[in-house]
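Assemble and predict.
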Amino acid sequence: MMNGPPPNADRWMLVEELEHLATGAWILGTGGGGDPYHALLELKELYRLGHRIRIVDPLGLPDDALIACVGQMNAPLVVQERLNDGVIMAETVRMMERYIGQSFDGIMLWEIGGANCLQPFLAAAHLNLPVVDCDAMGRAFPQADMTTFAICGLKPHPWTMADIRGNSIIFTEAVDWAWMERMTRRACAVFGSSAATCKAPRSGHEAKTATVLHTVTKALSLGAAVQEARDRHDDVVKAVIDREGGLLLFKGKVADVERRATEAHLRGHLIIEGLDRFSGSRFELDFQNEFSVGWLDGELSVTVPDLICVLDTLSGEALGTETIRFGQRVSVIVLPAPAILLSEAGLRHVGPRAFGYDLDFKSVFAA
Amino acid sequence: MTQRIGIDVGGTNTDAVLIAGNDIVARIKTPTTRDITSGVLAAMNALVQNRTTAQNISAVMIGTTHFVNAVVQRDGLSPVAAMRIALPAAAQVRPFADWPEDLRRHVEGPVFQIRGGHEVDGSPIVPLDHEAIAQAARAIRASGISAVGVTAAFSPLTAAAEIEAERIIRDIAPEVLVTCSHRLGRIGLLARENVTLLNASLQDLARRTIEGFQQARLASGIAAPLFITQNDGTMVRAEHATAYPVLCFGSGPTNSLRGAAFLSGLKDAMVNDVGGTTSDIGTLASGFPREANNVVYVGGVRTLFRMPDTFSVGLGGGTIVDQANPRNIGPKSVGFRLASEALVFGGNTLTCSDIAVAAGLTDMGDPSRVSHLSAQFVKDALHRIHEIGIDAVNHMKTSFEDVPLIAVGGAAFLVPDEIPGISNVVRVAEPGVANAVGAAMAQVSGEIDHIFQDVSRDDALATARSLADAKAREAGAEPDSIEVIELEDLPIAYMRGNALRVRIRVAGRMAQENLMQGAIE
């Protein structure tokens, strides 16, 4: 066992927490990761049928525990039509068990942001395994080489992938994470830009040391803050900011959205005209699935990996880059990024240069 | 001078106006009747006194909350079959999955999940299972269900599977009414399917209701065409509305807001529509209702409708005031029984209208019947009424700057003159018929839904705009009045040449001469 804080008590996720999980995950998705609504319906149905899911603290795992890491690969628009499928997700885990000849002790999240937060829970329900309270991004990112696993230099293979028709692939070797991303993304496109994947298996030790810890708890807490503020008829956006120590960057109305779909990503640009105390100003945001860089009146304001979230000003609900629309009244907020993403290695993988910007990262939270 | 009739068929009252040019020539309020037709006929007869007037009518515009009320009250809905063509995709979440239980009981019929549908790039998910569709059609026919909603994966981009299913169903079960999702909705399978199923369940009610409107029109001697107003402030011929009743869901608040704009001459303002039971507050931007963000729940069903953003609070002319405690007001209302139950009308229930009469804010019924109320009681009750209204306005207000507020509705007199954040409260001459005026002022629209390739986004948008404008002009819009009311562009992945799907909807005032032409056709 490593030294560190004592683990949190393992516990069963309650039925009333399902909604909190989805709300929080959608905020942490920073515009990407997909709207978790459909996955939430599927999860509620599984709870209705009597399934219950246990959440365990990675800090309490034996170092040699074997953890499956699952996530859906999607073009953002596709999942809105094809929906998710927990049964296929579970099948990728079984494929992996057959391939490596070992059984998993738990399931961890690839990505806490958006619908991918809920996929591991669907698989966990079908497989009767606990969910480990950590993930490999601490938010959502568009690529496999933007994970804590890549930052920490863990090996990227093997991966299993399955589609809804019963086609499946095992990726046995990739020379690095960028190649794993390239191969799997191309295969995913062949499957209609939606495929379930089980990523390279992780040990208990790796789950403790090479992930963002306790992000399930964080999503649940954010979702609860939203619910509480709504119940009080309070300012939901402020409640989100307060819960995570974030900042309000801008408030306004969407004046234009431009989108371009590439094979893997939805890229685009959003223009927001200011309202209230931001009246007369303009905020612009670029996105690559997730919001990546923001400018206030032409001046650089915020970049990845800080969490740039666009929320509906009134309801506080997160808005996705694929559905945000002209005329919506929105608040742009920023939440602090996990420390591991801010390390030198972290910024190489997820800083603005990794997204093609000739910019140095400067956190809005830096003094 | 040509004249038009605007009618708002609300849950409680049917309001109607006869408009010549920009003037309200006549107005009438009648109770909405259970059969709808007789109330509408009574209103038309009251406006059209003789054959000469009837011949001058160039158009009748009706806005109705009847269909949305049917969903909210679970009344008059037909059970429907659901056909989803997406397997093996979307297998885990069934149709009706996110509907409230009580509504499911009224609407949910047999559910068919069929292999087929398309990918985002237009290729089939799997080959369409024609035989399964035929089997489903036979089962629907055998079950006696009268309507089916058909939803296929990615049908807004590739409608072929839905069109083929519609053809097969019509062959086998010609009496079954088919609603295809691609004609109603956007990307988002479940929300589009929900709208499609709601529409299917309203087919029978819509046919009967609009037939009733037509009969009333003919019985009153009017030969002019009948239009039904829609969520976005535009109108369609009644025949079209019969097939798509869901597009009328938000027309009640839309008509009130647009009527308020017309009556006040203001294009940017907040509006408080105080009726018998509720105050509905909305916002006008450039003369159109500001729309709600994203998801809209209709009777508990999640949809992606574009609807006016309104906030309702239980405060209206019929709202009940506790005779023992002037601060205990509502949300219960005597509703349409105001004319018999309010004190001033000889009834036994103290209502907000009675308080307003006692305070001298309005004149109705017999004021002597409220003279027993103490001045302090009336003052306290009125103070509370104003508090409720002010809170509701604050809830909806989004800008820091002071804005005007237009007071409309039958109980507009309940809106106070001083409201924090409101620059001035605008009172109009005929506040009680703002909704009917809004219906009479409904616009005609042009819509384009086209995939552009090998052109820039700017060029694609400009081309779409000019095509839509041309359609609106053909429909009779005055060219100078045409504005964009909806614009959405969607890149289509994988399709060659930066394919961009553009949906644009423009609308403008209908020119008088065109209305006449419509009458002659």
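The CA atoms of residues 188 and 318 of chain A lie 26 Å apart.
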